[in-house]
Structure formats: C-alpha cells, structure tokens
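Re: that chain you flagged

S.,

Sorry for the slow reply, it's been a week of failed gels. I finally had a moment to sit down with the sequence you sent. For the record, here it is as I used it:
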Amino acid sequence: MKRITNPLFVFMAIAFLLSATSLVNAQTGRERNTKKAREAASQSDKAARIFSQIMATREKSIPHDLLDRAEAVAVFPSVWKGGFIVGGRGGSGVISRRVADGWSAPAFFDLGGGSIGLQIGVASTDYILLFMNERAVDSLLNDKFEIGGEGSAAAGPVGRSASASTDARLNAQILSYSRSKGAFAGLELKGVVIKPDNEDNLKVYGMTARDILTGANKISMSEMPEGVRIFPETLARFSRRR
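Prediction finished late last night. Pasting the structure tokens below so you have them in one place:
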C-alpha cells in the first residue's frame, strides 16, 4: 500500500480537521448560550411572578415601608426540601440591588442547606429575602454566605398593619419570608447557605455576581438581556426610591 507523503496534502488535511472541530465547538457554544439565556429568562419570570402575586395580597404582603428600605431583594422560587430524619434544601433564584434609577440586573444565586428533624416526603417553598443594608449585601457576595452565621436574620413582618418599628426591622440585616401551599409568612432561616452561581452569571452577562451588584459599571436596563428585565421592572413597580 502506497503511503501519502505529500506535505501539502497532510497540511491541508490537518487544517480541514481543525476548521471542522472549530465550527462544531462554535455551534455547540452558541446552543449552550441560547439555552442558558432561555433558562435565565425563565428564572427571572418565575421570580417576578411570585413577587407580584405576594405583593398583590395587601393584607398578607411585605410592608411597603420595609421594602422601600431594602438594599437588595432575593427571590428563590420552588425550593425543594425533603428527606427522612436528615433533610436538605435546594434551589436557585435571582437577586437585584438598588441602583440610582431603579434596580440592577438580576444576578443568579443558589440556595442550599441542611436540616435535622422528623420529616418525610418533599415540599416546594418560595423564599423572599430582603437585605436591609449594604453590609448584608456585601456579605452576600462572599463565595459562600450562611444565614444565621455571618448574617443576622429574622422573620419578616407581614401585612399593612405590621409595625414598621419592630425589633426585627431595626436589628436584622436580613428579613426572610416563605410561601408554601399558598400561605405567605415571615420565616426565620438558619443554616441556609447562599452562593453566587457565577457559571450562569458569566454565560448570561460575562460578569460575576460581585461585578453585577457592585461598582460603578452596573448593567443598565437597556443593556440587560431582554428576558431578564422583568424582575427589576417588577421590583420597580412596587418600590422606587425618590
């Protein structure tokens, strides 16, 4: 069998293989980015819908005076908790911080944590967290933030009749709420860990959570991917500082 030893032929064959591999990789990358953009839009839409539903029930909503004081708002839709004897939580959500003209682009975060107790089965719960000062937001941007550890948290008061001068609001860095089976109430969270999902943040924005939520170069509404705008737009409907 005669071997092909023409250097030009070998070079052209290698160049063709490299070009084909590059095209496949580029196509795969575009498909992944498109999928990630759809997932980001879906996550923002779910968070916005949950927040709107809760705020629409005035007698059982987050008091507006507390919301107006919050530096950042997190919504974690459909967090699953379950197990037998030893349980755990797991879910993902979005967090927006106040900016000069409204709210920042939503950064993507994961929520997790364990729990001990007598429990059987699984349950889905929506969580809303108000970060009441800059210190709370700064702590959130560490690689891993544990509620009840670094951050002082309390169950948030509910409804228009809730006192705006409660100790919870004055002392807590974080006010936490939950909705399960249609019931919305303040909930004290301990041992829950929140950490940035920077794989998603980088794919959607090309920035980490810290870059999205801090610094002078925050993403403007017009620069956000269209699908994620619904969350900061929804927050602005209920709270815009003047």
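What I noticed first: The CA atoms of residues 124 and 221 lie 31 Å apart.

Talk soon,
D.
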